[in-house]
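User: Just a sanity check before I run the rest of the batch. Below are the structure tokens for the first item. I only need the designed sequence back.
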């Protein structure tokens, strides 16, 4: 049994909606960090606490988002999320113009945005399987390239924070989410999958995940990677920019753009050689190259080498993230796909507050550069465990179009 092929316009409209969402969230990532570090000049350990306060509530909400994503019309659900996401920037713009912006308000801002994102992301990622006529690797890679390119505009806006003013930047951010609503309204109808059970709870998705050892292993290794690799980028880099290289908001925005350019570049390269028959081998091999990148960054190179390493780090993380997402998206059964994707997203989100607390304390005690070293050790551990125990090295990608199987219940090939 197969789903009818989606209209040709569905994927372009999906990409438009996802790109505008990414632009708003890229700007959010910049604003939340720089308002704490650059504007309010909060100490590293307090910034770690702020990130944890803002990101712990969405951890529970994310699983709820996975359940709702398998239960409701995807088009209407995502349209609602765009409306909700435009509200917090308008609130903080009002607070800023009233002169009341402080640590607590920035935490509230981060918490609201992260919570709505958590409700939205499982559905946004799962409906990709229903709007694309391409195979999973190409669909996700094209989406990553385009959304990341548009996302650069968010970093550019953040880099002009001093000249534009915070309130104006927040108004633009709200406008990006509102424009995304227009694109979402052009989606085809995306009713609840026929295989899904409206009354089924979270346990259904967890049981399905437990029955897929390869998916469990991928998500577990991704969590380890996010904990001290992605965590080091999120927590350490702002302080490396400010304290080691004496950079300002424009310098920090440039660093984020360079990292994103590396991520985009890696996906462009991947697209030229896809389909990859053994994506797990590439994921594991990238762990060793990342260990080398982090070691050289720890040596505090000159500013040009620093930017080159940031680009290489972005390239590396772009490859690993895409390989993880394509593997999980291909193997997740359609009836619980949003729930399984919510667990994958949880592995990203759960790592952030934990690494913020741990690495924030490490930076406060030692220096920002020291926060890079745990990632070196973890990368080697992931490579070793991944080859010996995960099944990733043997996993063979099927290469089927995303919209073909409706039940999604096929065993991974280890040939």
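Assistant: Here's the designed sequence for the first item:
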């Amino acid at each position: 049994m197969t789903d009818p092929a989606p209209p040709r316009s569905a994927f372009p409209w999906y990409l438009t909606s996802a790109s505008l969402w990414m632009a708003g969230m890229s700007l959010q990532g910049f604003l939340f960090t720089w308002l704490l570090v650059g504007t309010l000049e909060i100490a590293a350990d307090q910034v770690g606490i702020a990130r944890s306060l803002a990101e712990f509530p969405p951890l529970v909400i994310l699983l709820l988002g996975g359940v709702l994503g398998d239960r409701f019309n995807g088009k209407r659900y995502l349209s609602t999320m765009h409306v909700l996401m435009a509200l917090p920037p308008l609130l903080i713009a009002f607070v800023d113009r009233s002169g009341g912006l402080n640590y607590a308000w920035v935490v509230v801002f981060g918490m609201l945005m992260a919570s709505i994102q958590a409700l939205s992301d499982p559905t946004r990622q799962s409906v990709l399987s229903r709007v694309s006529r391409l195979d999973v690797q190409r669909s996700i890679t094209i989406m990553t390239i385009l959304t990341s390119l548009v996302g650069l505009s968010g970093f550019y806006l953040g880099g002009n924070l001093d000249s534009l003013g915070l309130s104006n930047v927040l108004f633009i951010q709200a406008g990006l989410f509102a424009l995304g609503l227009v694109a979402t309204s052009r989606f085809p109808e995306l009713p609840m999958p026929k295989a899904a059970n409206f009354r089924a709870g979270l346990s259904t998705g967890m049981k399905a995940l437990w029955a897929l050892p390869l998916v469990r292993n991928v998500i577990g290794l991704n969590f380890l990677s996010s904990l001290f690799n992605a965590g080091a980028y999120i927590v350490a880099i702002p302080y490396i920019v400010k304290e080691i290289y004496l950079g300002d908001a424009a310098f920090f925005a440039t660093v984020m753009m360079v990292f994103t350019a590396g991520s985009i570049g890696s996906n462009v390269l991947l697209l030229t050689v896809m389909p990859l028959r053994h994506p797990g081998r590439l994921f594991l091999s990238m762990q060793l190259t990342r260990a080398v990148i982090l070691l050289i960054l720890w040596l505090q190179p000159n500013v040009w080498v620093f930017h080159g390493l940031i680009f290489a780090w972005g390239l590396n993380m772009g490859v690993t993230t895409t390989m993880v997402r394509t593997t999980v998206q291909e193997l997740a059964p359609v009836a619980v796909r949003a729930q399984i994707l919510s667990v994958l997203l949880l592995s990203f989100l759960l790592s952030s507050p934990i690494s913020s607390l741990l690495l924030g304390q490490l930076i406060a005690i030692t220096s920002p550069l020291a926060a890079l070293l745990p990632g070196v050790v973890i990368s080697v551990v992931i490579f070793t465990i991944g080859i010996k125990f995960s099944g990733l090295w043997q996993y063979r990608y099927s290469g089927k179009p995303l919209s073909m199987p409706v039940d999604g219940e096929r065993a991974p090939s280890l040939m």
